[in-house]
Amino acid sequence: MTPVSSHSPHGQSSLRTVQVLGGGNAGSSAHVRSLSSGLVARGVRVTVCAPVEADHLYDFKGAGAEHVQVPRSSDPAAVAALRAACADADLVHAHGLHASFRSVLALSGRRTPLVVTWHDRAHAEGARAHLVRLLERRVVRNASVVLGTTSALVERARRTGARDARLAAVALPRPRRAAERDDPDRLTAKARAELGATGRPLLIAVGALERHRGYDVLLDAARAWRALDPAPLVVIAGEGPLRAALQQRIEEEALPVRLIGRRDDVTDLLAAADIALLPSRWEARSLLAQEALHARVPLVATEAGGVPELVGDAAELVPYGDAHALAAAVVRLLGDPGRRELLRERGVRQAATWPTEDETVAQVLSVYDELTQPRPMI
C-alpha cells in the first residue's frame, strides 16, 4: 500500500479509512458516528463496518459514511466480509476488543495500519477472563497505535505489549433534548408523571442489566430509601440477563425501583431526574456520567475505573460495593439543595474541560497522518 496524505492539493482527501464496530455499545457507536461525520467533513472517505442494527440506531450513512454490514462474529464468513471491506483501505480503525480482534484476523498478511480504540475494559470472569487477556495481547501487538479513553486503559495496553499507546481525545455528540424544543418544565413534569415520580424524588440509573453494573448493590441501597418520606423512586433504564433476578428482588422486598427496559430518550429522562446513579464495579469514560454533568444533574457514582478522572470533584464518589455509603450519599444530597446546586455548577465546569468533537477528530487525523504519510529519506 502506498501511503497517502489525508489532503490532496485540491483540498479533497484521498485517504480511505474503515471504522470497525462490534456489537457497538452506546459510547463507542456514538463516537464512531461523530468521528465519521467529522472525517467526512474534512474530505476523508469513511466506511463503517458494523451490524445492521447499529446503522439503524446511529445512521452512519447520514453522516456521509458508507455502511457495510458485518455481523458481530469471528466466524470465517464475518472475517471474510470484513477483509473484503478493508481491501483498498489506507487505514483501519477498530473500536472495542472484539471488533479489534476481527480486524487483526481480517488484515492478516496485509500491511494496512491498524488503529485500535479501547472505549472500555472487557468484563469477564473465570476461564473467559483468560481468553480476554489472550485476545487483548493479540490485538495490541498487531496494532500500530492503541488509543485508550482513560489513563488506566492506556496503562493496561502498555502492560499487555502495545508498542504505542496513547490517551484518546473522545467527545460524544450532545443530543438535543426534547426540552430544548418545547417548554422544559412541562416536559419534565410529563416524564416524571409517566414514570410514577410525581411528588417524590426521582433517581435514574442507565446501563445494561449485567453483573458489573452493580445493580445488586443499588437494590441493597434502595432498602434504606423506603423509610424516607416521600420515598424516592429509582428508575433503571436498560436490558440484560439479570432482569428476571432483579425484578424478583424488587417484588419480594417491595423496593421503590422500576425497570423500564432499553430507552432511546435517556437525555430526556435525565432532565427529569433529581439525581443520577452510577453504581458500577468499573467504568471507563461513562456515557451516563457525561450526560448527567452536561444536563446539570447531580451524580452519585462509584470511585472506580476512569470515573474519578472523568468527573473530578463534580460528583459524589463512593466505594464500589458499599451499599451503605451509596444510600447515605443519596440521602445527604436529597436533604441538601445547596450541595446539589454546587455539584451542578461544578459539573458544567468539568464538562467544559472535556475534548470537543473537533478536537477529537483533529487528534485522530494526526494519528492517521503519522501512519500513512511517506517518511522522508535519511
Label this structure with key terms:
alpha/beta, 7-stranded parallel β-sheet, 6-stranded parallel β-sheet, 13 strands, elongated, disordered N terminus
Strand content: 15-25%
Mean pLDDT: 90
Q: Specify the overall morphology.
A: elongated
Low-confidence stretches: 1-13, 176-181
Order of strands, widest sheet: 3-2-1-4-5-6-7
Secondary structure category = alpha/beta
How is the biggest beta sheet arranged? 7 strands, parallel
Number of H/I helices: 15
- Helix residue percentage: 40-55%
Record field, number of beta strands: 13
Secondary-structure element pattern, one letter each? EHEHEHEHEHEHEHEHEHEHEHEHEHHH
Distance between the termini: 21 Å
Rg, Cα atoms, Å: 22 Å
Overall description:
- It is a single chain.
- Helix 1 (26-41) crosses helix 15, helix 4 packs across helix 5 (127-142) and helix 11 (287-294) packs across helix 14 (337-351).
- The relative contact order is 0.12.
- The chain is 44% helix and 16% strand.
- The radius of gyration is 22 Å and the shape is elongated.
- The longest helix has 16 residues, at 26-41.
- The strands form two sheets. The chain has a seven-stranded parallel sheet, sandwiched between helices. A six-stranded parallel sheet has the order 10-9-8-11-12-13, with helices on both faces.
- The protein has 15 helices and 13 strands.
- By secondary structure, it is an alpha/beta fold.
- The two termini are 21 Å apart.
